[in-house]
Amino acid sequence: MSQSGRMSLKTLASLALLLGTKNGSTSRSLPVFSLLLGIAEQSQALSAAIDANTEEKRLLSRLLVKTKKAQTNASNLQRCLDGVLDQVALQTPQMNKNAQETDFVKLKCKEYGKINKELKGYQSKVPLDSSIYHGYLVKKAEEVRIIKEKMKPIKTKLEGYHTLPPDISQARVKVEEAKMQLNLSRTQSKMLVTLANTQLIINGCMLYQLEKTSESYRMIPRGLLDTGK
């Protein structure tokens, strides 16, 4: 029903109520009054239904907007989730590899720590020469360097003797003195180098023997070691 029809029904209903009030005592007006009253009630019910339908449509429209917004958000969240799952799938092999490498490194650190502890025990029991340490070798290298530095002015002095005056006897004496000093310095330098090399060989042999002893010790069953204790 159109808006104008609804207004007409309301007008008729109001008129019926008015006529019924004025002529309620006459029997002729009762059928007309009842009809108009029924029309008025139906008009009011129809108007209420139309209003309810309009409100329902408005609520439905708002719900539809919210539903579309929720669907958009759900779609965005799904894309984000798919991206995260793809990253997890790509990184899982590398993560597993890193975990295996970490376990391997931990195991090796534990083994090396045990071996280091055993070697320290052997070192405390086996007397080692002090020359095995790095500090001693550094000290010897410094001594060689100092000797070489001392040799430089001697070489310079010896070269200067080539310009001596024609006094052959005196020149020969000075040259021989310079040669003796130079030879002495060279001999000292060679001795230090030879001593350092010899000491390195001795230390290497001692370390090799120590490692062989350590391997032999590890090959002995633990039960025999406990029994020996």
TrEMBL record:
The record's principal subcellular location, in a coarse class, is cytoplasm
Q: Which keywords fit this entry according to its UniProt record?
A: Cell cycle, Cell division, Coiled coil, Cytoplasm, Cytoskeleton, Microtubule, Mitosis, Signal
A Pfam family reported for this protein in Swiss-Prot or TrEMBL = HAUS1
Q: Which GO terms describe its biological process?
A: cell division; centrosome cycle; spindle assembly
- Leader peptide range in chain numbering: 1-27
Species this protein is from = Desmophyllum pertusum
Concerning its family, UniProt says: Belongs to the HAUS1 family.
PANTHER family associated with the record: HAUS AUGMIN-LIKE COMPLEX SUBUNIT 1
Task: Name the chain's protein.
Answer: HAUS augmin-like complex subunit 1
